[in-house]
Amino acid sequence: MFYQPGKTHHNLPFDPFKACVVPRPIGWISTTSPLTPASPSTQPTHNLAPFSQFTNLSFDPPYVMFSANQTPEGFKKDTVRNVESTAKFVWNLATWDLREKVNASAQQLPFEVDEFEHVGLEKEFSSCLPGDVQNPVPMVRESPVKFECSYHSTLRLPGASVMGGVDLVIGKVEGVHIADWALSKEGKLDIGKTKPIARCGYYDYAVLDKTFEMVIPGGDKAILAGLEGNAEQAQQSMGRPPDEQTLPLPKSRLRSGSDTGRQAPHVPLATAANDLFGNIDPSLTTFGKLSHRLPVSVYLMLQLPLRPSFYIFKSFAQPSLASTTKTRAFSPSSPANMKLLYPTSLVLDPAKITGFPTLTLHPYDVKSPTLPSEHHDAEILVTWANSKDNLTYAVKNLKDLKWIQSLAAGPNDVLSAGFDASRVKITTGSGLHDKTVAEHALGLLLNAARRFYEMRDYQLQGKWPGHLGGPQPDREKGTFRTLKDARVTIWGFGNIAKSLTPHLVALGATVKGLARSKGVRDGIEVFGEESLEDILKETDALVMILPGDASTKHALNRERLGYLPNHAWVVNVGRGTSIDEDALFEALEGEQIGGAALDVFETEPLPEGNKLYGAKNLILSPHAAGGRPQGAEELIVENLRKFLGGQELKNII
């Protein structure tokens, strides 16, 4: 057999994909919620959950990863939120003896429920991770092997469905616990004693209690050490002393003396950097994270061999420390306290924006024409539904502002207030409205197909709409009365379309996309605009989710409205400027199309007396599709980590 996931069906009663990749180690991950700066005495919540996609990535130094699919509501799992907020987690070996506890801890429980207590497991705690003195990570005492891990990064992979989206979390192993009884006489971890369990396909598991050995022929010491995972032997075989905290500096030659031509030894980057700059955030002491933030001259000097002559290097670098200190003071990673202002115009939980000891959070009123003077030194401003006066005041008075996180899908209000994107980083809330807009679009489609709007009109007149009830034709050709077998075209196939499509497909619709470039996206065929005429002629419902710019101005004009069948409906949840409203009104009045459901308009609010209010078969929605950012805290936290780490921000304009 052969099938293409997302394109063709496997025609089996059960999906075989996961059953092909077996056995998979179980990532039994324990975490702790962050301490709340506003209430440090509050006890954190402990979390424990198994993940069936887990593995080690490397051994020198050791890294591991696990992946967590989104919740059915489209949110990050509690485990991922905790890891990203506290920068640490623990992996616990799942064993045959603990199998029932592992399974029980997989239940979807409220955030405040402690899975250790819920399933009856004893705790012990991590001791070598950041912040362990105040808030250590719980570990499964009964598990024979445990890894204490510091957080490295998260890779978000998009999904074709809500739960298909996945967060791939990478951590560095900082400490390893192995029970003495789990070791053999030869000093090896004895799988026959620990009996790890692993995931297979479907609801199946496997237990590992037997092993066999094979050594590749002809391997040299370095290769064999790598296969064994022996970091010390691997380092020694490469001609350098073992030091799991070293920075692999490039080969270089000294210019004079007996050392000419000899390769320099490795020197711990943390040691070198701290000797130069004092205490540096441990999370930044990797070459990739630190180098882009150092002055160019220092960055180049760190490329040089750091032999005993390093102390000469340190002495001649010392005079530049004053300028270096100044650079650090203006760096996003400065240890000085930073101030973030967040809006009270939506329910934003500041307790979720934690894990940043140098950050203080302050609410503000977005409708006020001013901002409190004590907050004029804020460096980060989160905006949502701010008044024009409020933003204009911020432009003039927040002189230390370095970054604006708008929760709106676009930055128009921020830019029109006068903020300069070349001086202040501006990021949008793109992605926060995907699900709410998709939900609203689905509601408008169902309203149009099932004619709820007409039923409401009859109700207000005190009349019974009998012609809309009772026995009805099923999927009558040349009508739009159901999503079953309806030909739905989505014009503007971005993230909102990807959120909407699974719901349409589940209700039986045939979905096609229109975009500037053609291709297959999340299993849906998307046509280029050169096919627009042919696609519109075969459309029962057109959903428009186009952005508002010059290229989409009146994209649906009189000519293109004429391509649609006279029963077709137009739904617009993108931008009002994408439809020629005069041409649409004429098409509605002349019954050239079945109807329209509009959430956006060229002028908003739509002026009183506008002819669209009285148009035939028009459902009017007052720009209500968005308005409820979903996952705002997660976006703020993600961008905070990137901002403090000097990385490219998400959704930056």
TrEMBL record:
Coiled coil: none
Annotated spans, Disordered: 231-264
SMART domains attached to this UniProt entry: Flavin_Reduct
InterPro entries listed in its UniProt record: D-isomer_DH_NAD-bd, Flavin_Rdtase-like_dom, NAD(P)-bd_dom_sf, Split_barrel_FMN-bd
Pfam family, one: 2-Hacid_dh_C
Highest taxon of source: Eukaryota
Residue ranges occupied by any Flavin reductase like domain in the UniProt entry: 19-182
Protein name, as recorded: Flavin reductase like domain-containing protein
Species per Swiss-Prot/TrEMBL record: Podospora bellae-mahoneyi
